[in-house]
Amino acid sequence: MRLSNYYLPTLKENPAEAEVVSHRLLVRAGMIRKLTSGIYTYLPLGLKSINKTADIIKQELNRAGCLEVLMPMVQPADLWQETGRWEEYGKELLRLRDRHARDSCLGPTHEEVITDLIRRDVHSYRQLPVNLYQVQTKFRDEIRPRFGLMRCREFIMKDAYSFDRDEAGAERTYMQMFEAYTRIFQRLGLDFRSVQADSGTIGGSFSHEFMVLAETGEDTIAVCSKCTFAANLEKAKVTDARPKCRETCAESEPVKTPDMHTVQKVADFLQAHPRKIIKTMLYEADGKAVAALVPGDRELNEVKLKNYLNAVELKLASPEQVVAWSRAKVGFAGPKDLEVQTIVADTLLSKETDWITGANQDEYHLRHVDLKRDVRLAGYADLVNIRETDPCPDCAAAVSFYKGIEVGHIFKLGAKYSRSMQATFLDEKGEEKEIIMGCYGIGVGRLVAAAIEQNHDENGIIFPPSIAPFETALIALNVQDQEVLAKAEEFYALLESMGIDVLFDDRDERPGFKFKDADLAGYPMQVIVGGKGLGKGVIEVKDRRTGDRSELPMNDFAASFQNWRHQVWQGWGLED
RNA sequence: CGGGAAGUGGCGCAGUCUGGUAGCGCACCUGCCUUGGGAGCAGGGGGCCGCUGGUUCAAAUCCAGUCUUCCCGACCA
Q1: Residue A571 to residue A566: CA distance in whole angstroms
Q2: What is the pTM of this model?
Q3: How far does the CA of A453 sit from the C1' of B72, in Å?
Q4: Cβ of residue A179 near strand B, that is under 7 Å?
């Protein structure tokens, strides 16, 4: 491609609207433009990168036996009413009404449509398994779209849906998809981790998120230094090898703690370590009053609590509710004689005794509380967030935290949709069975943004070769110099004939301008044709990632370029 | 939805406090010059100052309303 014939509006200055690196660089490099909040146009260069990414995804899914389809973006309300999600999904679902006053929505996801498709056509175990996917534009009316392509309302997503005859088959499919995803992200050249994710009420180990590691990531993941354990912070188990405490302690007694309503204040006042203080967190879970007890130096994990309670809705109690339930103002609630439906304690609290807790009386705490003796617990459960000092739940080695960007999620759905939509088949015995489903998503646009978050420098993007819009930039330093131009044309033709995806900067611009543009868009390789090199009989090449420049002999350019290109790809850990 | 900030040529911004000729840099057009890291000189084009209403002899500027965008939070199959 000749840059003189291309549409590439680059910006020297940072756009005011962009805060994060990927957003800034995508706009500056002429890859995207915003139409309105959370909605972007993909310019030729941006679309090219997205298409390359999608192509790799498609290749690997096809290899795993998936088949591509394309489903409608506008979906009828009645399908969503069947699964109950017309009400459940909330305001993220953009509803609209057509000229016949039929309710419809823009598809934020396609479980309903695909399940409807399958239930009409699949009736026999002989037709299973099936695994269909699409690359589609989705719409979710996010409360606050932000960070450019990282969280938009309209976005390009690959979603796949699998249909199996039983759990075993679904689990096999899940593993195949896990492997396909691993290959995909490897081929994209990204540093990523697959982590156990919250699988909500379904449970089990059949939900993984694929996270691209980047400092700017919104999610935190815990990764073991020794074994393969990696989990979303929300999901990571906190373990403690100590045995359960069997001892008891002195009788509990109230102690006056005026105005001491935070753990730190109480700890300082009573000269105790915060971990000896029990935080009593009051929640309303599906309308019931619940207390969760955690050590004072720990954070309660609401997802864990919600899963333990099997609750649909979990809300922190309002100050009024706290007063009503604990008979004391906020900061003085404690588990002893607390009148709530359920009291659950974090497992860590089972390992010791002699705690400090709120006294359910203004300005008073209790000391010498023994949970076994003084409190009617519903049970112990893992309720707190993991910390970097905690041991790996699998091997007890140290864990480290990383920031990551969620770019993929695979999930075993079970019969959730097939049941509500009656997607069934007959097995060999003629028995009617529900189809077992799985769903598998990759945010394609977000993936390109994540690649940039992970790979950039002060000059711009550093694209992995597999998803760079062009693999190579060919820069003619001075197109008014006939010799330079002729040579550049010659190498342009040569590179094209070698099957290299090359962008030929043949514009009549000054060298510095061209270098800056090439660095900004992040083509992994630059081939530079200038008078200097011509005099020496060499062509200069630059590896965008390392910044290393080399000189390749002009008379043996094709072979030496292939060799150098191979090294560049290897530097990315990729096969060229 | 709560808190904060901002809307002025295509982009980035000043001007608003203290009302009176719309301005700067980049980009764009023409010419000269220049060609290894976003050059230089000269000339030029381009504005409903977000929108509506009000105050005033006079509004980008003051007042009220409204729309939009961004940031923090809440929310997030």
Answers
A1: 9
A2: 0.89
A3: 21
A4: no
Using only the alpha carbons of chain A, give its radius of gyration. 29
Nucleotides on chain B that have an atom closer than 7 A to a protein CB are 1, 11-13, 25-27, 34-39, 68-77
Structural domains in chain A, CATH included, are 17-71+108-223+402-452 (3.30.930.10), 253-381 (3.90.960.10), 470-571 (3.40.50.800)
**Chain A residues 396-455 within 7 Å (CB) of strand B:** 409, 411, 439, 441
**Nucleotide at minimal C1' distance from the A198 CA:** B77
pLDDT tens for chain A, residues 1 to 576: 999 999 999 999 999 888 899 999 999 999 999 999 999 999 999 999 999 999 999 999 999 999 999 999 999 999 999 998 888 887 889 998 888 989 999 999 999 999 999 999 999 999 999 999 999 999 999 888 888 999 999 999 999 999 999 999 999 999 999 999 999 999 999 999 998 886 554 445 688 999 999 988 888 888 888 888 888 887 788 888 899 999 899 999 999 988 887 888 888 888 888 889 999 988 888 888 899 999 988 888 888 888 888 877 777 887 778 888 888 888 888 999 888 889 999 999 999 999 999 999 999 999 999 999 999 899 999 998 888 888 998 888 988 888 899 999 999 999 999 999 999 999 999 999 999 999 999 999 999 999 999 999 999 999 999 999 999 999 999 999 999 999 999 999 999 999 999 999 999 999 999 999 999 999 999 999 999 999 999 999 999 999 999 999 999 999 999 999 999 999 999 998
| Burial of residue A357 (number of CB atoms within 10 Å: 0-12, 13-18, 19+) | buried
Structure token pair of residue A257:
């703690």
Identify each DSSP E strand in A262-391 by its residue range.
Answer: 278-285, 288-295, 314-316, 342-346, 355-358, 364-369, 379-381
Q: Which of residues 28-57 of A touch strand B (CB under 7 A)?
A: 28, 34, 36-38
- What is the bridge-based pairing of β-strands A288-295 and A342-346? parallel
Lay out the sheet containing A253-256: strands in order across.
A253-256, A364-369, A355-358
